[in-house]
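Limitations
The structure tokens in this dataset are predictions for the assembled complex, not deposited experimental models. Users should treat interface geometry with appropriate caution, especially where small molecules or nucleic acid strands are included. An illustrative entry is reproduced here so readers can see what is and is not provided.
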Amino acid sequence: MTMTSVDSQYPALIRALEEAFKLAYEAVKLLIDNFNKGIHNVNTNPLIYLAPDIFGKLDRGVNTLRDWVDKFAKATEQFFKHQAPVIALIKASFNWLTQMQKPVSDIASRVGDFEQNKNYGEWTGKAATYYSVQVVARQQKALDALSPKAEAISKWLTQVAQANIKFLNTYAARIGDIASSGVAALISAGTIIGALEAIGDAAEVCGKLVDSAVTVFGDSVEYYSQAMSFMRDAVSTRSSTGAFPRDAWPQAVS
Amino acid sequence: MTDLSALADELRNMKLAELRLPRIPLGPRRPSPELPAGPADEYTAADASRSLRVTVDPEGKVLRFDVAGSWLSRLPAAEFGSALMATYQDALGIAAAVERQARRNQPEPEAPVSFESWSGAEDLETFLARTRAEQVAIGQKLSEARESAARVSYDVTELRSPHGFVTLQVRTGALVGLTANTDAISRAKPGQVQQDLWEVFGDAGLISNRASAPVSRPSRSRPRVEEDPEEDLWKGLGGK
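Predicted assembly:
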């Protein structure tokens, strides 16, 4: 992954991330709206007066389904709250990388290149020797290490963004399925028996989604773990005493 | 950037509706209709006086109405409407219960939810192109689902049968009320009542497309009240 190609795709990645959050929000909102309309259907259906025999089942079924809808709404709310600072960090970091990584790469290639400043050639003596041999060499080493690691950080951020997008798209699609099938059947159910069936089906699908979400979360966590290795790698570079003596950032960027 | 905290707040503030069941005074409970052992092509329910039978297909659409020739001797005319409504509801209930059980016994294979082959191996450009297409499809599906829900109306439509023996109240494609004209129905021949029911249920979209046309279908403009010579126990229309 070269900086140039990724650099130009940051805006598209941020847009895709924003769209993923928007779709997840819309899916959960649709689920809530459809649930409410479905309950309105039951409450206002004249057949309810003919169905006292199934009031108990109806009450239990609606409570179960409401609990699921409530759980999805709360989980999404918490996810959004938890991810808000992460997403802000990703966006800020992309900006930082766009502005910083290329200059760092440029600096690395130019450290010790006295072509840019002819006066260097006129500087002689012990101080000049020390600077050329010790300081420039150290800066060169640090910047050489930083540039590829900055690229690793950008890759890590990209992958965190991708993991969020993938997870949210999967989530939005599945919640959308529930809202547009099981819960929608409750909206259009003509009979109380039909409504009871729709409630049972929708609750069952909700339970299956939660079961399979374990897989989704599992995959997501695994992917985050892989992405984290990039961060650890970057941090290890930062703490490398060879490249960054006395735990200091290279002089050129400190 | 989308304000995620604001969206989170909106989700937290959304209210979930409560079920409001009417307080119905406890009366004698009707016995639950007997369920067949397994799924069938049709399901039949009869009223307590054995005067009325309604047969529906697995989707709950009517295949036949049977009105016993001597129904008036067993069922007061004033109770015809409520008895027919209850019998129809029982037939729907039987079909729904049996078919639901049959569906549960044959669960459809679930598509696994996973990141599939997503391993980060694809390049960013391919990922973004695939994501865009995926998001357009999800957005479209959500908006279609919202529009579809908005189209559902809970208005009740009244449909009067050709002979005026019954009036149906229909809501979201289902029968939610039925009133009978006691005077007219007590004077009608059973076959004519069946025909009248058949036609108005057809107008309401409640008849099965599997049902065959009645053998002798009276014209709406020329009621043939006096032309029903049969006095069989059951007068099936569209029956076998």
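Some entries come with short summary sentences. For this one: Chain A has a mean pLDDT of 75.
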